[in-house]
Amino acid sequence: MILVVMAAGMGSRFGGIKQLTPVGPSGEFLIDYSVYDAIKAGVNKVVFVIKEEHLNMFRETIGKRIESKIKVEYAFQKQENIPECFTVPKNRIKPWGTGQALLSAKEYVDENFIIINADDFYGRDAFKCLADYLKKSKKDNEYAMVSYILKNTLSKHGTVSRGICISENNELKSITERTKIGYLDNKLVYFEDNNHYEIDENSLVSVNLFGLTPKIFKDAEKYFIDFLTNLTNPEKDEFLLPKIVQQSIDDNLATVKVLNTTSTFGGMTYKEDLEGLKNISKS
Prior knowledge:
Elements: E1 2-6, H1 30-41, E2 45-50, H2 55-66, E3 71-76, H3 98-104, E4 113-117, E5 120-121, H4 124-136, E6 142-149, E7 160-168, E8 171-184, E9 187-192, E10 195-198, E11 204-212, H5 215-229, H6 241-250, E12 255-259, E13 266-267, H7 274-282
Parallel strand pairs: 1-2, 1-4, 2-3, 6-12
Antiparallel strand pairs: 4-11, 5-13, 6-11, 7-8, 7-11, 8-9, 9-10
Helix pairs in contact: 1-4, 3-5, 3-6, 5-6
């Protein structure tokens, strides 16, 4: 099993490279905890999806800490890595989102894998749940995701992005990305198109913790072409991993098992989130 870590984001709301911000009592990064928990769950290789200009910094910090414990490879997410029939819009300044991050890891992934964000704390039980499922799964179109309760994944310091999930009999039916969720007048809402809409704080959510098989790359490549063909805002549109998962479900190409976990989730969206993460990491 492989762990794919999406670590190319700069963290605009955080104000720096949050993947390299110490949170543990001995200077551990969030990635250190994820890799440790993944190894305990049975992962034997980790692929970091990063910006090419961050390679040396990543190797000197994270790489050196773990290379003696697990095989490490680096994949580069580049804005220009798109199908040959397309060109990068003139004023676009960032890569194409978590879906492109997934595709960036393709040449390094030849077996079942767990994919995560670099700036989230998922907890050991979450990795164990996914690993156990992937070990037992017999079909290449049977995926899984670990879900959390929305109210347990929020930040006290601003809005967050979450995939709102609907499941039946522990099988994912829909996942809708909401990019701005937060409290307004003591009500939990999401903001969209200059309006806000109330949302149930007990909703199940995805935080990009999926168990997948290499089959998803073929489907994602097709969906990436569809995405680029139908851009509405070429400078800012993002090709997102949850949308790939949703399209695979809609096209009857895959099923996604929804797994529950006893783990506590912690996200690093803003600098002010650090203190809470330090408390979670201690436990």
